[in-house]
Amino acid sequence: MTETQKNPLAESFNALSLVRFAFPSMVMMLFMGLYTIVDTIFIARFVDTNALSSINIVCPVINLIVGLGTMLATGGSAVVAKKMGNGNTEEARSNFTLIVVAGAVIGLLITAAGLLFLDKIIWGLGANEILFPYCRDYLTIQLIFIAFNMMQVLYQNLFVTAGKPTLGLVLAVLSGIANIVFDYVFIVLLQMGIKGAAIGTGIGYMIPSIIGTIFFLMKRSELHFCKPNMDASVLLKSCSNGASEMVSQCSTAVTTFLFNVTMMKLLGEDGVAAITVIIYSQFLLTTLYIGFSMGTAPVVSYNYGSGNVKQLKKTVRICFRFIAGISIFAFLFSMFGGESIAKVFAENNRNVFEITKNGFSIFSFSFLFSGCNIFSSALFTALSNGKASATISFLRTFGFITVSLLVLPRFLEVTGVWLAVPFAELFTLMLTVYLLCRHRKQYNYF
């Protein structure tokens, strides 16, 4: 059997075969983006744009919860996988059980604290009197489901550690579909408004949580539940390992908060609705970059590790050309389709429609730069240069955006808000080009 037959990463990829190899990752990410944005479409069209604004107001709370879950999950997976690799299976099971139990307990504590200080949290996030009732209804129900949210995040990572990645993918897709179906039932058929949206999302959390718990209780894999040893060092190690994931979610929470507060000050709740539409649309379009980067990163790592410089250069060259093509497509789609996107969300609110349409005409330029930044960050990760990767990621998602949001609106008002992300991506691109040139002799990718 040849090396290529043994390992598909050893294939001599051309443009078509590389895109075909990355296609499943692109589809998975695109699907995740689609069911996220469909969720907001239901709320905007069948409740109102104030409900849409309120979801973005409380979004930082959800970001922090997902960050805690992801930190524990990714860091814990590394701890458990290492012990399984060392043959310490019993200890790995004990650690795994402890991590899941800790996640559930943390979720319950957050529920209790969140409900106790609910009103203060909502006012602190920037809600006004119009949005407060929506925020309260939505966040109350979200807090009730926090333990399930934590567990579904944990299981998505730990299914891979248990050697069952397909089960994780199936449950993720099932959860997304269920969320959309229940949104239709609760919002459209039962007319439950934003409460229905929150319940639909909560049921989406429950599906992978319950099925995952049953799976690990049935002991059908090497990794399953057992009586855990209460070892605090395991939890500390897990949190330190996954700290970068928490930082990423915290960055998103802070920038979302800044967007909301700035738009609330400039244009009120309609401005928050408009920025919500554009942020979710950005997430959908950037899934193309993220999925392609995820799908091609193992090929880059393999060729770098095997010392196949010729194939590494060929792969990286194809990737940048493809990213350039997607960037132009995303830019044109956003620029010329912005009005149609705005109409989907804000057909019933003329003011939100006009604000969103005008915003797209400026915000669209960010897609010309973001693709290169996202792929370059993934490229450096694939080459085991975590410092360069983290620098690019941190500056484009937090550093430059925060500075832009604090400075530009003071001089340009709403236009400054729309320019914040394009400016952040442009400045990040300058840094990215510098890092790519600086490390080209080290990695030989050009």
Give the topology string: H per helix, E per strand: HHHHHHHHHHHHHHHHH
Largest sheet: none
End-to-end distance: 32 Å
Strand segment tally: 0
Radius of gyration: 22 Å
Mean pLDDT: 85
Number of helices: 17
Count of spatially separate domains: 2
Shape: globular
GO biological process, one term: response to antibiotic
Membrane topology: Multi-pass membrane protein
Subcellular location: Cell membrane
Pfam families: MatE
What does this molecule look like?
By secondary structure, the chain is an all-alpha fold. It has 2 domains: 226 residues, no CATH class; 195 residues, no CATH class. The protein is built from 17 helices and no strands. The longest helix has 64 residues. The N terminus is likely disordered. Keywords: Antibiotic resistance, Cell membrane, Membrane, Transmembrane, Transmembrane helix, Transport. One of its GO terms (biological process) is response to antibiotic. InterPro entries: MATE_fam (IPR002528), MATE_MepA-like (IPR045070), MATE_MepA_subfamily (IPR051327), MdtK-like (IPR048279).
Quick overview of this protein structure:
With 446 residues, the protein is mostly helical. Helices cover 86% and strands 0% of the residues.
